[in-house]
Design a protein that fits this description.
mainly alpha, Acyltransferase, transferase, transmembrane helix, EC 2.3.-.-, Acyl_transf_3_dom
């Protein structure tokens, strides 16, 4: 795959490998695992209304931290061999994430109205759709209307900053973004607790993206390590997440484990190519749909469950229904929209003068 079409495809495929035509199957599997972690956590949160006491382990929310590390990794891999301009990069990323997010957000708003939970205000809806951090009046937290969308706000924040340093070498991108995000984090103690925008912008979460970038930079060296050592690193990291209790903040606790899991996956890449993991890799393809559509499925199913419903049965039903809906969304919506987006991006470039960064790369 070469030239303009090749670059568009690389930017839209979430785990393009360093060969330019291959993929990191380990990253695909991690995307599936991370989405499943978030799904199970949210199912447990929802079912807590049917059960006395919590029914979800908090460490499962680390799936989002894994997503952040993976995103930083993928952005470096997707751009280091096929240079791309900032505008083209941002168009490709927005075309990848916006359509499904907007549709899911609007459907969720309609669902709230149908279930008489209150229609969102126009301001709330617009801030949600355009990735503006604000305090959700329903949750009291700095989340958008579709709660999992808070991570997309960080994704967009990272994409804008990443686009601004695309002209630098990979090593310098890592150093510059790391320094910028670390500097911004220093202002966190000065931020009012009720200022959602400043609270989110001064979070250390963006440093997880930078860690993923660093892992991509070191991927060639990591691939020379024994695959079994990567598998052990993954197992130890997950065990630590599930068993270690700490008073540290979320990023300081989840971040190192998420970084270790992604590093282990890159080292253990040969193991993730086994045929038995095929279903997990396919779920990785649909992980974005799973991440965004499962709140709709869970919200739809909850009223159908009687207060005395067995928690295990309800959880399994919600999880299976969410996975089925994710595959339907992926094949019926994500793939067709991705094809249209590639055509749109190529069309935009056909009317603009080529720059050195936009020329075929080999």
């Amino acid at each position: 795959m070469r030239g303009e079409e090749g670059r568009a495809e690389m930017l839209e495929r979430p785990s393009a490998g360093p060969a330019g035509h291959d993929e990191y199957q380990s990253i695909q599997c991690l995307r599936a695992l991370a989405a499943l972690m978030v799904l199970v956590y949210h199912v447990g949160t929802t079912l807590s209304v049917l059960h006395d006491g919590p029914v979800r382990p908090h460490w499962l929310t680390a799936g989002v931290d894994i997503f952040f590390v993976v995103s930083g990794f993928v952005m470096v891999v997707a751009t280091r061999r096929r240079p791309v301009g900032p505008g083209r990069f941002l168009r490709a990323r927005m075309a990848r994430i916006v359509p499904l997010y907007w549709v899911a957000t609007l459907l969720y708003a309609a669902l709230l109205v149908l279930q008489r939970q209150g229609a969102p205000s126009l301001e709330e809806l617009l801030k949600s759709l355009f990735f503006v951090f604000y305090t959700n009046p329903r949750t009291g937290e700095p989340t958008p209307l579709l709660v999992p969308g808070w991570s997309l706000n960080y994704e967009v924040y990272f994409y804008v900053m990443f686009a601004a340093v695309l002209w630098l070498s990979v090593a310098r991108r890592i150093l510059v973004l790391g320094a910028i995000f670390a500097f911004i984090c220093m202002f966190r103690p000065l931020v009012p607790a009720d200022d959602a925008l400043l609270f989110r912008l001064t979070s250390p979460h963006p440093l997880e993206f930078v860690a993923g970038m660093a892992l991509a930079y070191a991927a060639s060296a990591a691939s020379r390590l024994p695959a079994w050592s990567g598998a052990i690193l993954i197992a130890v990291a997950f065990a630590g997440l599930a068993t270690i209790g700490t008073g540290l903040s979320r990023v300081l606790f989840f971040g190192p484990f998420a970084i270790a899991i992604v590093a282990g996956a890159v080292i253990a890449e040969p193991l993730f190519r086994m045929a038995v993991l095929g279903p997990l890799r396919r779920l990785g393809d649909a992980s974005y749909s799973l991440y965004l559509t499962h709140p709709l499925v869970v919200t739809l199913l909850l009223p159908l469950l009687a207060p005395g419903t067995a928690v295990a049965g309800a959880a399994i039903t919600m999880a299976i229904a969410s996975i089925v809906a994710a595959f339907l969304s992926y094949h019926a919506f994500e793939l067709p929209i991705a094809g249209l987006a590639r055509g749109w991006i190529r069309g935009r470039r056909s009317n603009a003068p080529a720059t050195e960064a936009d020329r075929p790369s080999g």
